Amino acid sequence: MVRADSNISIVWESFLSGDKEAFAFLYNLHVDELYCYGTKLSMNKELVKDAIQEVFLDLYLKREKNKTNPENLKYYLILSLKRNLIKKLKRLRKLVHDETNELLFEPEYSVEKTIIDRELSVDVKRRVSNALNQLPPKQKEALYLRFNESLEYNEIAEILNISIESVRKQVYRALKTIRELLGHEAFILWLM
Amino acid sequence: MENISKYLENKRFIQWVFKPNNELEEWWKTFKTEYPKEKHNIQLARKVLFQLKVTNKTFSEEEKILLFSKILQQITEKQKSGKTVGFIKVFMKYAAVAILFFSIGALLFHRQDNFNPQFDLQNLAESNSGNEAKLIRPDGENILLEEKKSLIEYIGDGQVIINNNIHKPISTIKKGAPELNQLIIPYGRTSKIFLPDGTKVCLNAGSRLVYPEFFSDKNREVFLVGEAFFEVEQDKNHPFIVQTTDLRINVLGTKFNISAYPFDNIIETVVTEGKVSLEQKNARLFTETTELKPNQLASFNKNSGNIKITNVETDNYTLWKDGLYKFESTDLSRVAKRLERFYDIHFQFADPLLGMIRITGKLELGENRDEIINRVALAASVRIVKKGEFIYEINQ
What we know:
- The complex is a heterodimer of chains A (192) and B (396).
- Chain A is 68% helix and 0% strand.
- Chain A is mostly helical.
- At the A-B interface, helix 1, helix 2, helix 3, helix 5 and helix 6 of A face helix 1, helix 2, helix 4, helix 5 and helix 6 of B.
């Protein structure tokens, strides 16, 4: 696979000057992340793809005005995708007279056991995923952006439209819950 | 929660769990061997984070290419405003496929192996030199450099002034096959040298520079281990080349700094004036030649072979030559390393993660060692306790 982070500023400069290969490189680099994130906001795959298309089209056509630091391109694209999806969904909902404007983030926590938690009992594993599934969508989204996409707290706050402090709190609370549910079991088994 | 939350907040840790790669794998492996007591916490923190992994819907390669071709098509439509013909659609589809594949290869250049093998032997003779600053001349003479900051200057005809003493040219040298000098500067010392071509090199603590008695080849080549700031004398017909263990730096312009310490995983090159280009050694089939402009920093990772380029404040990388050290949001571990080299001392971290604290400031490195260390402690809000003549411990 391409070395993702090598020479990103060089690629970015060629992209800004209109180079389509550089554009293809950036597309390749981020399209998977955008698709994964988008399909958790909306189950409608075609809608997500349309949104991604528009986000990249905009990125290219308006590149001269783009002041984004290439290191933060991921954040920039995720934010653009979300705004685009919100716009699209509002339009759709007007048609069906739906009042809710909120986009609900619905991830599926992997149930399969990885090597790392093979010593966790099925019971504990289920309790953890139950607890996670019951979290409010915004909190799930914060967790996703923080860990799966490793964004900064201020970036997440911007995307979720809440304060940095409350992002921090929500992430901390969720981690604490998991830690408690893993409980002594994790400890004891490790000591043995 | 206490003992694992530092990991849960750590970017490098998060990436290791969610998007692992060889580099991170290695980093954390080293970390665990260095701090065996942390092993359990790391295991637990990993387990907690693993619960947050989500399943992703897959997006096939075909779908990706199709979507990209649609984007390109729209771009062409927008640019030519309306003139769409049927065949463009087909054409674009294939173009997109081609572009997706070529974008990988086109950014890489084929490598030429032109590392100067002359320096390889010197390279292997790694520091059996002890703690003395010295110049080893081609005839085998060892000249000890007593001063804390030594000055060496070639003044033509093979004559060299070392700390105000004139040394005669070496008589055994046949013209045409220059032999090598080795300048060795241990921790706690620095040196300034004017090479036979007039190029000025400031050598930082813990470094060595290998250079010929005179430059006769097409290229002016030197070999560096450690850190040095170069002000290269212009000579378009004789390019100046600095070779390090893993990188070769071709100088197109004038002033730049290279940090290539053998125990650092990263080789850093910063340009303040002119241009340099970097070329990798022992590379895979494909490798890049990277050009570096003023105010750019190239960080070359020895393990992964990646070069990362960022724009920086060059003072942070070059002021050491004037006895100043400036840093901006720099890891405490890095600042500590600097001081270790400059003063020939050692820092122990009570908690290794303290090394990740970022600090900003400016230090005038001089005789006042303990005062400097106190100021660093203050900036990082840590306690630094003197444990012995040359050993300090960093605490919360």
